[in-house]
Amino acid sequence: MRTRIFIPPLPRMSGGLAVLYRMASHLHQAGHDVALVPRDTAPCLDEAARELPVVSWESIDLSGDDLWLVPEGWVNALAPGLKAGARNVVYVQNWAYLLSALPSGVQWPQLDVSFMAVSDPVAWFTRETTGHEAVVLRPGIDTALFHPARPDDTDVCPPRDRIRVCWMPRKNKALAIQIRAILEARLSLAPPCGSAGPLPVEWVEIHGLRQPEVAAALRSAHIFLATGFPEGCPLPPLEAMASGALVVGFAGMGGWDYMRQAMPGGYLPWYLLREVPWGGNGLFAADADVTGAAFALEHAIRMIAAADPRVDALRKAGLHTAAAYDLAAQRDALLTLWARAAEGDLFPAARRP
Fold first, then answer.
1. N or C: which end of the chain has fewer CB within 10 A?
2. For 256-303, what is each residue's pLDDT tens digit?
3. What are 87's strand-pairing partners?
């Protein structure tokens, strides 16, 4: 069984594209026949090609036993696999693009494909809108890179004289600015105080940084404000948890794969969440609820300023969560699914037209 992975021509690197490269690397290292198939060019393709085989779009030659993996936003890229009667797998990395990418008048049941989802909420959405079950393959984070500050990391430890909040302006910047304005209005009425007096809040943008720089920023933060939605299985909040930061904000729907509410009386989604071995690991608001997010952020800041023992419990739950999403877990889940596929238990071949 050969695996061919379509690499979309994105203008810049994305988390979803990084997951595709990582999947290909895991399969290649495990001895699978895997290759990337770009349409034109793609971010970081040259770097990936140093390790992985690359087959041009014009040279692709699929057969009935080949597995043709295409992310959900690129429906037209399924054409070679459908024509060849290959084992076509749509990897749904963000629920929001599953339907919007379909040509007018086309619905997923008309296409002979299987589905794989990046999280449990995305699998639920896929089932409810296509009628098809989707196996789940979660992404992984590099916990060797994203980890809490160590005792000798004095230059990247969270400061003691202020509360540091990291945020990503590429994730709904206007809403993040609203959250900050509401928070600052609240704190002007009653500033947070530590044992030595009032504690200012410092805002740190994470934008245009390399991964080691992102990791260092998260290690130095008390709080990560998550403002992304829609999301499939958002990695920045997981990386923040792995770095010891307290996560506050939005789940983007897909984040509920691992996010669990610790805010007293806080928002919970109406769809059923899977059982997980960790408890509350953050303070979350409904997507786009800027007031709810601002009040959750204020609650987190006041807990940290007061050295509330619940903060340590939240951080421990976050570390527990992140450990379940490391690269080894992703690799093991991927290889288990591909073993099932090789045995004919998953991803049947399409009927040739």
1. C
2. 999 999 998 999 999 999 999 999 999 999 999 999 999 999 999 999
3. 67
pTM of the complete model: 0.95
How many angstroms separate the first and last alpha carbons of the chain? 21
Q: What is the CATH number of domain 163-325?
A: 3.40.50.2000
Distance between CA 134 and CA 131 in Å, rounded?
10
Structure tokens at 1: 């069984």
Q: Does domain 3-140+328-342 have CATH number 3.40.50.2000?
A: yes
Phi/psi of residue 338, nearest 5 degrees: -70, -30
User: Sorting pLDDT into bands at 50, 70 and 90, what band is 74?
Assistant: very high
Where are any strands of DSSP class E within 250-323?
A: 282-284
246, 282 Cβ separation under 8 angstroms: yes
> What pLDDT does 155 receive?
66
Residue type at 84? A
Q: What is the mean pLDDT of residues 231-249?
A: 98
